[in-house]
Amino acid sequence: MSTAPQASAVQHGSFRLYLGAIVLGTLGIQIQGVAVAWQVFQLTESDTANAALALGAIGLAEVIPFVGAVLFAGHVADTQNRRRIAFWAIAAMTLLGVGLFAQSLLQLETWVQLTCLYAMVMLGGLARSFLTTARQAMIAELIPRELIPSGVRWRDTRFELACVIGPGLAGLLIWLGGEPLAYGLMLGCFVGSLVATSLLKPTQLLQSRTPEPILQSLSAGIRFICNHRIMLGAFTMDLFAVLLGGAVALLPIFAQMLGVNELGFGLLRAATSMGAVVMSIYLIIRPPLERAGPALYASFAVFGICIIGFGLSIPLASELGFGLQAAFVLSFLFLLISGAADAVNVIIRQTILQTTVPPEMMGRVSAVTAVFIGCSNELGMAESGLAARLLGTVNSVVFGGLATFGVMGLTHWRFPELWHLRKVGQEPTK
Predict the structure, then answer these.
(1) Residue bearing the bigger pLDDT, 313 or 45
(2) Which of 60, 334, 355, 370 is the most exposed place for a label (fewest CB within 10 A)?
(3) For residue 220, what is the domain's CATH number?
(4) How many CB atoms lie within 10 A of CB 274?
(5) Which domain holds residue 350?
(6) CA-to-CA distance for 277 and 264, rounded, in angstroms?
């Protein structure tokens, strides 16, 4: 007796366009991130300590406008046309990309160039706050609710694939033709994402809801997460683990310590996403995680160990009698495995989000989770720069990896029910 093929989100044409828009937009963002970081490092590398602060300031420049606007962006995403919001957000990022491309061609004073870079990163963070919430909430309008877990896995896999290709490609382009070449491709990606977004045709449009005072609307997303302890615990653990344990901001310095060029830097940036892609594909083809709580804790433990290993790669290779090439391989492998571990918790958290939150609230709740993610990633970059300035580059990374275990312990103390979560999307069993 034949079995009917399992329904998949990618059977829907509009969802495939959605994936295309995400891939192209993410490619553009990743290329921009690598090009800006490398450019800032080149402008400040004469002083390693100040270079660490300058690199960390990139994350701070992005996170301040992002966090400041994202709750309002979530309110807008739940009251206005989500496709239109995403379109105009990408359009704004495209215009900012033109500015980045232009400044890379001009011979400007160092302080002027740095000011331009930070200013455009700040404006990009503002645009991304609207893009993130609109795109996150839009998935419920493109596919039936029963296909959302499939859609989340497909979206996250494509997102991570773009995160793999983007940094390595950016490093290659900078090596071949400098930052202008990288910024040029970034612009092409943004334009492609803009076209794909304009062609989206949601099949399940958001039902109009009764207008409510804006402060009440903004607080609704916060109240929802605070009342859902599983979601709150999962996102809180990710926030502090990644904030303290992230090392992305310091990769240009590590690339210099490892003796690699722009291409090597791009490979280091891509390593975590390579691991995430492999793990995401594995999670697509296997049944849903049946012991999601323990899997979540295990993923953070592996992440912390890998961050410690990455920080110690150079002294470890030296102790074993190997040179910088072996240290580079070790660094790459530790980052690769950390990305695979991170993909587990990302998919678990996103599936909890998409299967728990009502569609009419998805924008506001997604905005709150975006605050968690933005603070962990971009604010983590600022923390890494400051820690490196105070403790040294290697010590700061090792400290961050050790701190991950402290975060896990505190989370288990405050949210013990998270450990008992079984199948993703179900309440925990006692």
Answers:
(1) 313
(2) 355
(3) 1.20.1250.20
(4) 22
(5) 12-203+215-420
(6) 20
